[in-house]
């Protein structure tokens, strides 16, 4: 057992809004739509968030457990960041959780919200797509595809590749859950987990005119290294609305690995430029210029070996190589080359790794390309446990600290 | 294990296990009630069978959603509007809200479009919603719907 990272991209958030640790680009003004079922018993800790504009007063987030305040609270004034490093919340399987936001000044624009999670049994994490205001699905007699990351966009996507995430760390798809807040459909609507482009055994159905949260747990579908995961929705005849707030999956790793990625199933186009663009390592792949590197940095909260820096592009017409880089405390430490004219493909660095400690902060950078453009759907990394150090200490690779010092030795 | 947690209980949450077999979920009967909210527990305590309580919960969702959709269509709300607002009253009955403030929604971080909604439009929406509810099966224990 060990910790994993939950990370959502925020948006403009007003006092009284409710959010969660997935997605997202819209908030909710009521708690119910944001409540996700903790499909595994788990401990949540290190709740944190960053406000990068607005938030003129005191900005506060509180972890909510089954509709009541939990133990974790983060509060700070103005555009800044904070974390609750003391408290934790222990949830039983099936408990509902979400995040409540309040402020005493102007609305905040949130760069990210994050927490660590440790399953009570086994090692894993939750990954999901969310827009807490809800988005409408009404594509009649079709199957569409849904990514398990970022902002939920109406009707999903028609090209499954654009919704997929290539798994390196998990080996089991454990649960699928979907929240529907409006359902005018006159027949059954069906969600499934997808593994490598085929149906898994998870099945979430909403009967005619039924709303609420439906979860399929103890699924246990095997995933092998390099396979992809996502979800699908199949609607029957009729153009009535089905309003979906989130779709999340639960994953486990028998080798104590976990993953984080950011994404946007509809794609984010980046025109080649020598001006780099930065993103938090989880949640919604927002506009290219929303956050700079320091605003994008997320503290991971546990030591890990980081590997497999990768992204999926549905288009790549760059005339010169572009780059996806992982930043550690403000310095580039891993690079994945986005080969010129590489077209739709996964771009992955399968050879280089770095070791981070619990206080390290990570972000993603897209850069270069000469001319042309890419369309980004996801970018992420895999975390593996660090081998236990010997009594004499362990030699780590070069590490960059924000004070400019570099150290090779750590105990 | 497949569970349904309705989102319209007046307080607390019902959590209902449904049978999943043969690639389908059986929405005709409950497998087990994992928890019942105080309101629906009250229905059971009043003498309803598990099947009757389940039918009441299911049809309560259906009358609510029938009414909300009728209002959305009648008011001509934007295709992407996420759904007409409603509240669940303490007695488990629903009130569907048709005033412009309650219908406000967000699109791409901005207020989503709303048509002009006059009193006559609200009356027309109310009539359509109540007709939709009337056409929906309402077994004992089913919540009622009022349109404001």
Give a verbal description of the structure.
The complex is a heterodimer of chains A (411) and B (148). Chain A is mostly beta strands and 411 residues long. Chain A has one helix at 293-296; strands at 3-8, 12-13, 18-19, 36-37, 42-54, 58-65, 68-77, 81-83, 88-91, 96-103, 108-119, 123-137, 142-146, 165-166, 172-183, 189-195, 198-206, 212-216, 221-222, 228-235, 242-253, 258-279, 283-284, 298-299, 304-316, 322-328, 331-338, 345-349, 354-356, 361-384, 394-400, 406-410. Chain A is globular, with a radius of gyration of 20 Å. The two termini of chain A are 22 Å apart. With 148 residues, chain B is of the alpha+beta class. In chain B, strands 1, 2, 3 and 4 form a 4-stranded antiparallel sheet that branches. In chain B, strands 5-6-9 form a 3-stranded mixed sheet, covered by helices on one side. A two-stranded antiparallel sheet of chain B has the order 7-8. In chain B, α1 (38-45) packs across α2 and α2 (50-75) runs antiparallel to α4 (119-134). The longest helix of chain B has 26 residues, at 50-75. In chain B, 44% of the residues are buried. Classes of the chains: A mainly beta (411), B alpha+beta (148). At the A-B interface, β12, β15, β17 and β18 of A face β1 and α2 of B. β18 of chain A pairs antiparallel with β1 of chain B, so a sheet runs across the interface.
Number of strands of chain B: 9
Mean pLDDT of chain B: 96
Total domains of chain B: 1
Mean pLDDT across residues of chain A: 94
- Flag low-confidence runs of chain A: 401-411
Oligomeric organization of the protein chains: heterodimer
Helix fraction of chain A? under 10%
Number of domains of chain A: 3
Major sheet summary line of chain B: 4 strands, antiparallel
Which shape of chain B, going by the Cα principal axes? globular
How many strands of chain A? 32
Q: Output the number of helix runs of chain B.
A: 4
Shape, per Cα inertia axes of chain A: globular
What composes the largest sheet of chain A? 9 strands, mixed
So what's the CATH class of the largest domain in chain A?
A: Mainly Beta
Strand content of chain A: over 45%
Catalogue the unreliable spans of chain B.
none
